[in-house]
Amino acid sequence: MLVNFFLKRRVKKALENKNLQKALENAVNHYNRNFKNAIEGLEWDKLKRRVREIKERSVSRLPELLERFVKEAERAGAKVYVAKSKESALKYIGDLILRKNEKIVVKAKSMLSEEIELNSYLESLGIKVVETDLGEWIVQLAKEKPSHITAPALHKTREDVAELFSNYFGKKIEPDIKELVKIARRELRKYFLEAGVGISGANIAIAESGTIVIVSNEGNARLATSLPPLHICILTPEKIVETIEEASVILKVLPKISTGQKVTTYVSFITGPSRTADIEKEIVLGAHGPEELHIVIIDDKRTEIREDPLWKNVLYCIKCGACMTICPVYDIVGGHVFGSPPYPGGIGLAITSVLKGRKEIKSILDLCSDCKKCDSHCPSGIPISKLLIDLKRRRGLDLLDRVFLPYFGSNRIRKTLNTFLSLLQLPFLKDGFINLPLSSSKLFPAISLRKYKGNERGNVLLFLGCLIRDFYPEIGESAINILKKAGFEPFTSDDLVCCGAPALHLGDLKSLKNFADKNLSIFEKLNPEYILTLCPTGNGIMRKEYPEIDERGRKWCERIFDFSKFLIMKNFPLERKGKGGKIYYHHPCHSLNFAGIRNEPLEILRILGFEVYEEDFPTCCGFAGAFSFQFPEISSSMLRKKIESIERESPDFVVTSCPGCILNLRGGLAKIGKKNKVYHIAEIINQELL
Ligand code: SF4
Ligand code: SF4
C-alpha cells in the first residue's frame, strides 16, 4: 500500500501536464464515440467469444502451428528465422542488413521492435532507421517512447506536434493537423524511395499458407513493405492462427476495438516475396515489391508461459490497445507513467513482467485500481486484473498492509477501533462529515456505531459489507424495510466479516481465504435461502472469488444476489408513488465489470417514475477502495470529472448501487459545498414506499 516515491512524482508530473490531460481526454472521447458506432448492429459479445476461442485453440497448438507456418512461408519463398531471444533476433537482422550493405531502413509501426530496441541496435551499426507511422515518427523525433501500443503519440496535442516539427524543420509550423500530416508525408516520402530495407511487424500470421497479415491506416506499412528490395517482418509466435478464416474473425474485431473503425484502410496479406511469371511463365522474385522477405519470429520467454493456466492468457492478446484507452487510470496519467515501455496499461504490466521479470513493474502495480474495466472490454477475454492481482500476490504485502488488513478480518478489532475513532471524531463532526483536511477532494463520513435491530433469523440474509455497517446503516435499514414489505424475513448477522475486497486488491489471497472461510461458515450455520448484497464488489467477490478458493463457495454463490437484481427477479411490486424527478444514475465500475449489474437499477428507477440519466460511457468516480488512499491525486481527478458530469445534467438526485461510490460522491460534493443528494438505490426505493 505504500506507494513508490518516484511513481508518485511521475503521477504528479502527468497530472500537471495540461497538454497531456487535453490529449488524453480528446483521445478517449473520440475512441468511445467511434467504437460505439463501429459495433452498432453487431453481435459483439459473440464475436469476442470467437476471438477468444481462436486464440485458445491457436496457443494450445502453438508448436504445431509454428512448424507449419515456417514450412509454408519457406515454401512461398520467405526465409524464416526463429529466434529464442531478442539478442539472437537483433544479430540476425543487423547481420542481414550489413551483408546487403544497406544504410537506410524504413519502418512500419511495430511494438515488438520497440520491445527489442531494434532502432538503437541498428543505429549502433551505423544504419539509419526512419519510423514512417506518423505517431511513431513523432515519438522518434521527440526522442520519446510510445505511450500507447496502437497510438504511440497519444500523449501529444497538435500544439506539441507543431512545436516538434517547427524545431525539426527550423521554421514555424502551425498546429493545423491536416498541414502537419502533409508535412510528414512530404518528408517521409523520400526515405521510402531511398531505403534498401523495410521493417514491419505483423498483426496475424496464418499457418496454412505462411502468410503475414498487416493492418494499417496511413499506407506507410504498404510502402515500407513493398518499395525496398528487402522486407524484414518481425513477429511473435502467438500471432499465428491456423486458417485464413480464423484470421478474418480477428480482422473483423481488431479495427473496431482498436480504433473504432469498421475496417482499417489497408489490410495486407503477404505470402512470400514479390514475384512475376509474366515472361514465359518463369517465376522471378522481386517484381515491383521486395525480392527477399525475411520473417523473424521472436519468442523471448513467451512460450514459457503457455502451460500456466492463468498466465497463458497473456498470449491471447491481439495487441488492440483498447484496454489502455478505456482504463480510467491510464486516461488520467497516460502511458508513460502507467507501465514500462513499450507496453503500458494493465496488460503492459503483465507482458513486461514476463519479458523483463517482475521486479521491473513491482512499484507500478499499485496504479491498477482493480476496476476490472479492461477485463470486460478485452476482445480476447483476458482477465487482466487477475493477472495483476497475481503479480501483487507474488510481490507480497508491505508493513502498512499488514497493519491495515486485520481491521477488516476481525470484528473485535474493527469494533474496538471504531469505538475509539467515533470518540475521536466528535470535535470535528459537521453535517455527518468529519471536517478534517484529510483529502483535498472529499470529506469523510462519520463512523456510526448504530446497532441493527431486527430478527436474528429469517430467509433472506443481508450481507451489509463494511461501509454500510460502519458508515451508512440507513442503507441497510432501507433494504430491510423493503424486503419486509415484500413478505420476506430479512435478517443480518453481526458475525459476518468484510467480503475481502481490501485483501483481493492487495493480492493477499491468503487473507481473502480467511475472510471467505469466516463468511462461508456463517452462511452454513444460518442457512438462508438467499443472500443479498448492497455492494457490487462484495457481490462479485463472493460469487466469483469464493468458489475458486473455498469449495463451499460453489454452493453459496448460487444463492447470492444483488439487491436490485433480486427485486426484479422476484417481481417485487413497484409502482409510481412519489413525484418523480431526474436521477443521474452512477454505474459503479464493479457493477458493470464484475457483478454483471447494469439494467436492473435503471429499470426499478424508471418504474418508480423517475427520469433516469446514465452516461453513454460510464466513468469511474475515483473511489476504488484502497486505491483512493494510495493515489488521492488520481482519485480526485476522476471525482472532479464525475462531479462535472453530474453538474452538467442538473439532476434532482444521484443514485448508485455501491456504498463506496456513495462515500466518494457525497464526500466530494460536500467538500465543494454542493447540494448533496446522493442515495443508494435501496434508500430511494424505501423513500418511495413510505
Ligand atoms: S489485453 Fe485485450 S484489450 Fe488489451 S491489448 Fe490485448 S487484446 Fe487488446
Ligand atoms: S483493472 Fe482498471 S485500473 Fe486496472 S488496468 Fe484494468 S482498467 Fe486499468
Short description:
The protein has 690 residues and is an alpha/beta fold. The chain folds into 4 domains: 12-132 and 196-303, NagB/RpiA/CoA transferase-like (Rossmann fold, 3-Layer(aba) Sandwich), CATH 3.40.50; 313-395, no CATH class; 403-562, no CATH class; 581-689, Rossmann fold (3-Layer(aba) Sandwich), CATH 3.40.50.280.
Describe this protein's structure.
This protein has four domains: 12-132 and 196-303, Rossmann fold (3-Layer(aba) Sandwich), CATH 3.40.50.10420; 313-395, no CATH class; 403-562, no CATH class; 581-689, 3-Layer(aba) Sandwich (Rossmann fold), CATH 3.40.50.280. β24, α31 (659-671) and β25 form a beta-alpha-beta unit. Strands 1-12-7-4-2-3 form a six-stranded parallel beta sheet, sandwiched between helices. The model has no long low-confidence stretch (mean pLDDT 93). It is 49% helix and 13% strand. It has 690 residues and is an alpha/beta fold. The longest helix is centred in the N-terminal third of the chain and has 21 residues, at 18-38. The site of one iron/sulfur cluster has 13 residues, from α13.
Roughly what fraction of the amino acids lie in strands? 5-15%
Runs with pLDDT <50, length 5+?
none
Bound molecules: iron/sulfur cluster
| CATH secondary-structure class of the largest domain | Alpha Beta
Biggest β-sheet description = 6 strands, parallel
Distance between the termini: 43 Å
Gross morphology? elongated
What is the average per-residue confidence, as pLDDT, rounded to a whole number?
93
What's the β-strand tally?
A: 25
Which class do the helix and strand fractions yield? Answer: alpha/beta
Q: Architecture of the largest domain, CATH level 2?
A: 3-Layer(aba) Sandwich
Q: Please state how the strands of the largest beta sheet are arranged side by side.
A: 1-12-7-4-2-3
Assigned CATH superfamily of the largest domain: NagB/RpiA/CoA transferase-like
